[in-house]
Amino acid sequence: MDRTLHTVVLSIACLLLTGTAAAKPRPLQIYFIDVEGGQATLVVSPSRESVLIDTGWAGARDAQRIATAAKTARLKRIDYVLITHYHQDHVGGVADLLQRIPVGMFVDHGPNVENSDSARNQYAAYEKATEHSKRVHLTPNQGLPLQGITLQVLTAAGEHISDPLPGAGEADLYCGSEAAKPDSSENAQSLGMLISYGKFRFVDLGDLTEQKELDLVCPDNLIGRVSLYLTTHHGMAPDNPKALVWALHPQVAIMNNGAHKGSNPEAWQIVHDSPGLADLWQLHYAVDGGQDHNVAQDLIANVDEKSDGHYIKVVAELDGAFTVTNSRNGLSRKYGQK
Fold it and tell me: Does any domain span residue 175?
């Protein structure tokens, strides 16, 4: 072989080998979509599988914002829509969403438990919207068959995991000061989950109420520490008790509040003061919280009372490092591995 040609071939081979060795796994992406006081969180795995947690309110606004986020993530369908519970700010958008993007399967905790006319009507609307779709109920310790990430159910239909997750089980020092009342509402039925990608751990407990939260960490913390914490019940109190938040010891917290919903000053302060917390991000400026109970505006996706639908995006790596970006101003902050 000609010496020059031989050199070229070797150079190309070296480049190919270097490129293969240097190739990084795709990251996990999470979009916290603004549905103004409800929830719609889009999770896109490294293998391009997708899970939408809740669908916001009924109407074109929230369904379109979800569809726009899916398009931004280059998705042509959503593989799983996971409904934490049947309140209208979480399940109301199902019918409108189905008009905009295909859904592979609906996942929930089972039948509705509330007896009011509005609760029965809301659940009936969900059943009607999904009557021609695949639907499955999950229980604690179950998950979804996702490649590269793990979604583990922690709570569902009022039940919770009974054994500590790997690496968890430490005594919770903050349990003694907590006292909560039993709650049989749909909030207490919330399907809560832990999503893990390598060393990155994200917990979303829906609108789980205080007693059910304490069951997860008292007397022993069954979950362990997490990288990212989505405030439960939009940052309301007495939910988000210190015994839960401080035991999870999140690096970053995100509050899916609205301008006049959630971000209760008591709960906000507990999350804000959590030991080791690097940042708290908010989907909205909490008008009723005032300057003392809102983070700096750079970390708020929607600063005006009338929302423009800006979202917060998280991109997580296998080693536990992750980046949070505010779509309103493009601000990004990177956080180290746990």
Answer: yes
> What range defines the domain where residue 197 resides?
28-335
331 to 35, 48, 142, 250, 299: CA distances (angstroms): 21, 25, 36, 20, 8
pLDDT tens-place string over residues 12-26: 444 344 444 457 889
Distance between CA 298 and CA 335 in Å, rounded? 16
CA-CA distance, 108 to 190, in Å (whole number)? Answer: 9
How many domains is the chain partitioned into structurally? 1
Q: Which residues pair with 160 in a beta bridge?
A: 155
Phi, psi (rounded to 5 degrees) for 48:
75, 15
Q: Is residue 8 part of a domain?
A: no
- Return d(Cα 34, Cα 56) in angstroms, integer: 9
The CATH number linked to 109 is: 3.60.15.10
Claim: this prediction has a pTM higher than 0.90 = yes
Q: Exposed, middle or buried: residue 139 (CB in 10 Å: 0-12, 13-18, 19+)?
A: middle
Q: What is the distance, to the nearest Å, from the Cα of residue 324 to the centroid of all Cα atoms in its chain? A: 13
Residue 17: inside a domain: no
Q: How many angstroms separate the CA atoms of 78 and 71, rounded?
A: 11
pLDDT tens-digit series, residues 214-245: 999 999 999 999 999 999 999 999 999 999 99
Domain membership flag for residue 133? yes
